[in-house]
């Protein structure tokens, strides 16, 4: 291999869980493969946009922080998502802004103080061979990234050196709350939930349990009970809310199983899943019913906001 | 046929309340017709026992258009031929050393071990659904005499290739994973191989037959104990 494909970031410390992700693996549900992809697709897209990358360019998803990298090739990178201390060679640097680094620099991400997942994009993305048209890592399936696993100490994350002279920043980055309201489209077995049970669900306050990962978020709160125990296993879409026999809802995320047999009241709007994903155990969750028409409108407005909200070019006085 | 909303970009079509080869064939046929009719806007489909989840690109279309297309496309297809897929024969080494639950299952069913093996091979199984894990094919239906409930406490590790029964379903584990199914043997054929084309030897709608092989044949085919 030549230099441009075998060098990149050398991992000094991988943090607790760092994964390669692109927007996800689509069209493979019929063989049981889930989609993977970034839990906070908004922060992911901003990371790429700030590095002038295409939307689907591979990034690192860093959960809890704690990542430390040695730069082997000059490049431009940026970190978005969860708030954490970011330094280059010990000097504090801003998130939500593209930054230049040079051979030998040490990039260090501390631990998150707001939100759960940060995204690190590098100009041009990482050079990794896709599996089923995606590099997204799904550890449970052993697919994507490097041999289907999380980033390890000593690994090199290869990229092609870039001479980007332009730097961009986002002026008003989002903040991450520990109390979120999730908009829900009623669907699937919602008719098996009586008006009273729906009332309990939509007026209840839930908290994120210790069981929350890329597959699903289990919530604790008022019990809701459908009039049926189980169903014939069927396809599960992103954001589906399963209600098992204990009456405690589970919101299914990017690494969800493709089919399952628990009753479902409906699904959470995708852009609200990002807010949920930035919550850790103990965060407060409430649900709000919206119509499918409202859902489509909200999605289009959200896309327009990302498309139209310009990143601001800045001159590189900063390293 | 009943269409329900599933999420912001997905609809689920129900073809019946229970699993049967007829309903499964309808799911298969609808899956093929809709992949064609919705080609421009489709993200994925998930066929299962009696339903088909349709996931579309909400930036290119909306649920009204997709519902209308589904109704139009499927309105003339209330019945479907039951034999749609290919027939795949999978070799199995049935034994106590490769099937930890074989003897217990025989005892539970009040049958001899040989009878259990005989009955498991006699049925032709339909691939009803693929999911749970990559390459995990739900096969049905197992002869009522050897149907068995899941283990009370699931095993933390079921080896790859394990041939197992849960209620009236049987399956071959595509990879080592936790699982509560009753293991009766082992199949040396890989059910999911990222490097192979196709990745899986079966698709939903195919028919699977099991054929007993000896320990030596199992080893020769690459099986591991």
From TrEMBL, chain A:
<keyword id="KW-0378">Hydrolase</keyword>
<dbReference type="Pfam" id="PF02626">
    <property type="entry name" value="CT_A_B"/>
</dbReference>
<dbReference type="InterPro" id="IPR029000">
    <property type="entry name" value="Cyclophilin-like_dom_sf"/>
</dbReference>
<feature type="domain" description="Carboxyltransferase">
    <location>
        <begin position="30"/>
        <end position="305"/>
    </location>
</feature>
<keyword id="KW-0067">ATP-binding</keyword>
<dbReference type="InterPro" id="IPR003778">
    <property type="entry name" value="CT_A_B"/>
</dbReference>
<protein>
    <submittedName>
        <fullName>Biotin-dependent carboxyltransferase family protein</fullName>
    </submittedName>
</protein>
<keyword id="KW-0547">Nucleotide-binding</keyword>
<dbReference type="InterPro" id="IPR052708">
    <property type="entry name" value="PxpC"/>
</dbReference>
UniProtKB/TrEMBL annotation, chain B:
<keyword id="KW-0067">ATP-binding</keyword>
<keyword id="KW-0378">Hydrolase</keyword>
<dbReference type="GO" id="GO:0017168">
    <property type="term" value="F:5-oxoprolinase (ATP-hydrolyzing) activity"/>
</dbReference>
<dbReference type="InterPro" id="IPR003833">
    <property type="entry name" value="CT_C_D"/>
</dbReference>
<dbReference type="InterPro" id="IPR029000">
    <property type="entry name" value="Cyclophilin-like_dom_sf"/>
</dbReference>
<feature type="domain" description="Carboxyltransferase">
    <location>
        <begin position="1"/>
        <end position="201"/>
    </location>
</feature>
<dbReference type="Pfam" id="PF02682">
    <property type="entry name" value="CT_C_D"/>
</dbReference>
<dbReference type="InterPro" id="IPR010016">
    <property type="entry name" value="PxpB"/>
</dbReference>
<protein>
    <submittedName>
        <fullName>5-oxoprolinase subunit PxpB</fullName>
        <ecNumber>3.5.2.9</ecNumber>
    </submittedName>
</protein>
<keyword id="KW-0547">Nucleotide-binding</keyword>
